[in-house]
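Quick one, tokens below:
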């Protein structure tokens, strides 16, 4: 079994799936074609916001798009960690609504997948020291003579 090939295919599946989903969810915050995103905002959280729930969703949309684009580009690791934290906070917020427990569980599962993506990204970078890695850094080429 070729472990590198298997791990690489897992990495790509997570990267594309999580990255595109974040972009799509962020884009839909403006259009509400997939769902009415405002209904998922906990009244407790909405009460703490300095803007309306709708305005908050319009602010959140571009943030989610940026996280998705980070995952899909050379900032995969940072974007995946951001997505994991973001999704965990969304799950907590959903629990606070008292009604969307199923979605909270789903978001925790996606947060775990994003965490795995971040770790797989680190492993891929460590496995190939000549690769241009995330965050725009170059790793030194290790030459064994």
């Amino acid at each position: 079994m070729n472990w590198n090939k298997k791990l690489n295919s897992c990495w790509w599946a997570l990267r594309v799936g999580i990255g595109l989903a974040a972009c799509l969810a962020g884009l839909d915050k403006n259009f509400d074609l997939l769902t009415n995103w405002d209904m998922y905002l906990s009244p407790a959280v909405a009460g703490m916001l300095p803007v309306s729930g709708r305005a908050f969703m319009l602010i959140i949309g571009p943030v989610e798009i940026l996280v998705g684009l980070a995952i899909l580009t050379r900032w995969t690791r940072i974007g995946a960690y951001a997505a994991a934290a973001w999704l965990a906070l969304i799950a907590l917020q959903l629990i606070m609504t008292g009604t969307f427990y199923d979605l909270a569980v789903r978001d925790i599962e996606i947060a775990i997948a994003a965490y795995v993506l971040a770790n797989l990204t680190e492993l891929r970078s460590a496995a190939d020291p000549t690769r241009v890695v995330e965050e725009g850094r170059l790793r030194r080429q290790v030459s064994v003579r």
